[in-house]
Amino acid sequence: MQYTLPMSYFEKFKLLAPIDQALDALQFKKPTPIQEKAIPAILKGTDVIGNAQTGTGKTAAFCIPTLTTLLNQPTKTALILVPTRELAIQIEKFWIELSQFCTAVTCVTLVGGVPMDTQLKKMKKNPRLIIATPGRLVDHLQLENFDLKTVAVLILDEADRMLDMGFSAQLNEILRLLPHKRQTLLFSATWDGAVSSLAKKFLSNQMVRITVGEVSQAASSVGQILVNTNESGKRDLLLEEINAERGSILVFTGTQVRTESVANYLEEYGVAVNRLHGGRTQGQRSTALKQFREGKIKVLVATDVAARGIDVSDIAHVINFDLPQIAEDYVHRIGRTGRAGSSGRATSFLTEQDLKRWNEIVELLKKTGSPVPKPTTKKRARAANIEDVESEMVQVQPKSKKPTRSHPQNRRENLWEKGSVKVKPAEEQRIKPKTQR
Length: 437
Ligand code: AMP
Fold this sequence. Notes:
Blueprint lengths: L16 H10 L6 H11 L4 E4 L6 H15 L4 E5 L3 H14 L8 E4 L5 H8 L5 E4 L1 H9 L8 E6 L2 H6 L3 H10 L5 E6 L4 H10 L5 E4 L10 E7 L5 H11 L3 E5 L3 H13 L4 E4 L5 H12 L5 E4 L1 H4 L7 E6 L6 H8 L9 E7 L4 H13 L7 E2 L1 H6 L24 H11 L6 H4 L9
Parallel strand pairs: 1-6, 1-7, 2-4, 2-5, 3-4, 5-6, 8-13, 8-14, 9-11, 9-12, 10-11, 12-13
Bound molecules: adenosine monophosphate.
């Protein structure tokens, strides 16, 4: 019997050899659903709207055909607009991997928090791809540091978030300076009137719209848990969740101040933690992400905006210490775990004050056919993957004054054994948690 080697699933796209080689090196064997639909459409030169939630492989869906265009048209460039520095860096990282077997298809990121001069020097080397936040790009354009005349492909990534962040005016300014003849790709996890009118402005009428799953649908690979608590019970609950989890944990809070205070609190208990929010410098944010990606810290506490571009594929657990203000953000947050088909857990703390917000989230989850978690107790949350599961909804008791078996004080030896405590237990005697002072 004669055997033939199985054809790579990407082969059917007839990509250029250096791209096939890179996909091989990246071990991308099979296109994700968004890649399956978007790559052939983009390769044809059509304008494309991609409605895909985060973690679906959308970066590769637009980078693969864009790199093809740039290799085929050596005088042309591409521009990717993104809402945050982190997302820009994440895309740059992927681009470098994807273009590792091609020469001269370099890219530059133009984001806030980095000196304009440094960026200008990089622009003088004629990069073929610019990845920029709208604000910083407009700063450069107003100074006439360069123009956008060679742009053949424009990508608006996370367009919904760019509008949420108030970049509408900058986007219009950039549009004015772009060549009319170009291909435009718009990716958005959510769809509403504002995104629709942005699409009308930027894309041609012949565009193709691709939807993967329901817009804003929560990834089915994420197990959602909702824990009833009150404001003063949240910190103890958080420590319990952290203690029960072996993998990495991303904790979302509502504001920069709360991010700092929760991270400081965890530090007092010796948890290896860092924080990510808009008030930190670019260097601090990059360090925090690097530590998290490399597993040097177990917990990253973050705000929504800062967490937008986190591409850490093996986050085991997302914890909503505070529920998000916008229902859509719930889906974005929990999409940080369970990425590219792996399973993950998302635990949300629910207080009485959150009920209105939670109802909006439930409405969205129902509308999109996503599973809706039922409120439960902290006992159930911890026992979710063990056997003892309570079925009825019970209010969590106010924090006990006496240390219990689950109290963090009693767990520090264990944490030390697991290697997640930085200081030795003996030295810890001096570090009293705030609640004990
Ligand atoms: P994204 O939605 O672009 O942020 O991608 C989510 C994650 O999936 C990233 O870590 C990608 O590297 C990974 N990924 C994307 N496409 C594929 C693929 N075809 N096979 C395996 N992993 C992929």
